[in-house]
């Protein structure tokens, strides 16, 4: 037989290109199995297609892809019942880098009816060579469907290959990988099965692992997202959601559609019914899986923006090649168009669901914080996301929207007012909103860290500016009459308080926005909201904006007493500090010196 062995040099500067494929083109070694499985799937699809016009080429009904690891020999054998390759095709397709039989075949399908075209994978012609990442030598034995001849192609990937006659009972291809010493992990059947489940779980061709002569299924073989919605049961949707999301709950929403026209893709997405064990705040990336012709490519293609990262599922397209690296994938404009279409579809679903206030409330409690990040991050979608926001309010029970707030605005009210803090229930009792409540002005209560940031980015809604009550002091005069009760003369008290607190506040002034409280803090005229300053301090970041303003209520009994004694009270400086600490505590902040504050309060009580 050795006399019939033919030795050939690779074409296309193969040494350099093989080094690129093996060392630079792929980011994970396990990709070799995905590429070889993809090639096998193409071969089977191609045989099925050609059998439509030549029934003698039909594959066996039970045709499947077999993967057989052999630890003793150090080999992995991948066998298919596909179209196979002739001697000439072996030389053309495997002997020349970047010459792809799949690509050539795809071109031949231009005139074929759309329904008859098989879904082809791997149009770059380099995927096969990923085998050399894990193998010292690769043998390919193939018999073309319709032919009695089989041929064996062999190479160590170092510049040459051999071709020799061989034996194979049926049409198809066997690939034998002689594994490298540092690739022994791939001889473990469980490792192989995990790779298949990750990368090729929904290839429609059955894949089996052969161990000790027994075959065990390695993939599900059902691309659920490619089926018509009418053929998928709710139970199948739930099962697939739990598989892809690693969850145990029921999906809150299921989005299943196929886009056709300028771009083609299928999508099956889920919005979870419960928060995941790992909160969405703990990761910033969308993990929607990208498939190309049923083959998993990556879950890091950022198919959705970060603020929709709670969405789970699959997007499968015909318009991309089975790409060889995530880096190349990110740069293609096709993917950008698909991302935009998928984002718009999810937004449409959320707007539709939001019409059911009770059902939407459950979603909002789970994932509302992520949508608020979208208001901050995404200028293009900002106004659309704003319609989906929900809030607690000082005036109504349950959740309310910005549109609902605007519909209830008081005559003459120019702005949408909010108070941001750590807990909406506590904010409802805050002195900050006493003056607004007394004038019948509604205040939105924002109780999450992100609430310190997004209102400034949104700026306005329906033409109404969005303003923090800590910055809206000047608006009160326009919103109604001040409290009727006359306050004390606090001029002397203000002067002494300003002098005592000159290092800690920018101003001390009387206010008519307090009803039941003696003091309150507000932001300086052109400074950031108080809650934003607090959040930044907790994160260890300083923020320019000036010292806060201490406002006192001239009608409160404590302030009346202090004002009456302002000219003679020698302990007023200490009391000034207590007033500032009291204002801090009311806003959920600790006093400047907790131990000292406690001692002074105890002494006064005694």
UniProtKB/TrEMBL annotation:
Domain of life: Bacteria
Binding sites annotated in the UniProt record for ATP: 35, 39, 80, 85, 100-101, 123-128, 173, 326
Annotated GO MF terms: ATP binding; ATP hydrolysis activity; ATP-dependent protein folding chaperone; unfolded protein binding
InterPro entries: HATPase_C_sf (IPR036890), HSP90_C (IPR037196), Hsp90_fam (IPR001404), Hsp90_N (IPR020575), Ribosomal_Su5_D2-typ_SF (IPR020568)
Compartments, record wording: Cytoplasm
Main localization category: cytoplasm
Gene3D superfamilies per UniProt: 3.30.230.80, 3.40.50.11260, Heat shock protein 90, C-terminal domain, Histidine kinase-like ATPase, C-terminal domain
Function in brief: Molecular chaperone. Has ATPase activity.
NCBIfam families on file: PRK05218.1
Protein name: Chaperone protein HtpG
Native organism: Rhodovarius crocodyli
């Amino acid at each position: 037989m050795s006399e019939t062995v033919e030795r050939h040099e690779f074409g296309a500067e193969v040494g350099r290109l093989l080094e690129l494929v093996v060392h630079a083109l792929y980011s994970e070694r396990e990709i070799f199995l995905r590429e070889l499985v993809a090639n096998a799937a193409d071969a089977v699809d191609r045989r099925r297609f050609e059998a439509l016009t030549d029934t003698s080429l039909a594959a066996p009904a039970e045709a499947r892809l077999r993967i057989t690891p052999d630890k003793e020999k150090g080999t992995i054998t991948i066998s298919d019942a596909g179209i196979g390759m002739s001697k000439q095709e072996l030389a053309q397709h495997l002997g020349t880098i970047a010459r792809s039989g799949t690509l050539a075949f795809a071109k031949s399908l231009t005139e074929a009816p759309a329904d008859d075209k098989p879904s082809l994978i791997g149009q770059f012609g380099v995927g096969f060579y990923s085998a050399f990442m894990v193998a010292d030598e690769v043998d390919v034995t193939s018999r073309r469907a319709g032919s009695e001849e089989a041929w064996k192609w062999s190479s160590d990937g170092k510049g040459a290959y051999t071709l020799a006659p061989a034996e194979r009972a049926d049409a198809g291809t066997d690939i034998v990988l002689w594994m490298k010493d540092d690739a022994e992990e791939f001889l473990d059947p469980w490792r192989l099965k995990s790779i298949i489940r990750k990368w090729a779980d929904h290839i429609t061709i059955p894949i089996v692992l052969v161990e000790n002569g027994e075959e065990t299924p390695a993939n599900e073989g059902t691309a659920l997202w490619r089926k018509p919605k009418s053929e998928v049961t709710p139970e199948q949707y739930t099962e697939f959601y739990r598989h892809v999301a690693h969850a145990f709950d029921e999906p809150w929403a299921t989005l299943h559609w196929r886009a056709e026209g300028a771009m083609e893709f299928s999508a099956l997405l889920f919005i979870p019914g419960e928060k995941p064990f790992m909160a969405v705040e703990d990761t910033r990336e969308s993990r929607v899986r990208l498939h190309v012709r049923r083959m998993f490519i990556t879950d890091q293609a950022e198919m959705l923006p970060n603020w929709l990262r709670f969405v789970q599922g699959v997007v499968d397209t015909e318009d991309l090649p089975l790409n060889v690296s995530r880096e190349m994938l990110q740069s293609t404009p096709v993917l950008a168009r698909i991302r935009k279409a998928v984002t718009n579809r999810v937004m449409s679903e959320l707007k539709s669901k939001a019409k059911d206030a009770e059902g939407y409330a459950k979603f909002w409690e789970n994932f509302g914080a992520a949508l608020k990040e979208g208001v901050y991050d995404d200028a293009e979608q900002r106004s659309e996301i704003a319609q989906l926001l929900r809030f607690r309010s000082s005036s109504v029970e349950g959740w309310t929207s910005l549109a609902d707030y605007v519909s209830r605005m008081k005559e003459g009210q120019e702005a949408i007012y909010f108070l941001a803090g750590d807990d909406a229930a506590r904010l409802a009792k805050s002195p900050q909103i006493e003056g607004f409540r007394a004038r019948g002005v509604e205040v939105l209560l924002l109780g999450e860290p992100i609430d310190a940031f997004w209102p400034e980015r949104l700026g306005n809604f329906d033409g109404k500016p969005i303003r923090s009550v800590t910055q809206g002091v000047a608006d009160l005069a326009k919103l109604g009459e001040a409290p009727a009760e006359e306050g004390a003369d606090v001029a002397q008290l203000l002067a002494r308080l300003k002098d005592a607190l000159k290092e800690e506040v920018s101003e001390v002034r009387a206010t008519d926005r307090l009803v039941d409280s003696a003091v309150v803090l507000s932001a300086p005229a052109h400074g950031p909201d108080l809650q934003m300053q607090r959040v930044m301090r907790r994160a260890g970041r300083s923020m320019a904006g000036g010292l806060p303003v201490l406002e006192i209520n001239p009608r409160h009994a404590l302030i009346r007493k202090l004002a009456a004694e302002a000219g003679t009270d020698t302990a007023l400086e200490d009391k000034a500090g207590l007033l500032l600490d009291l204002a801090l505590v009311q806003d959920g902040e600790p006093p400047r010196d907790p131990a000292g504050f406690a001692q002074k309060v105890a002494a006064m009580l005694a």
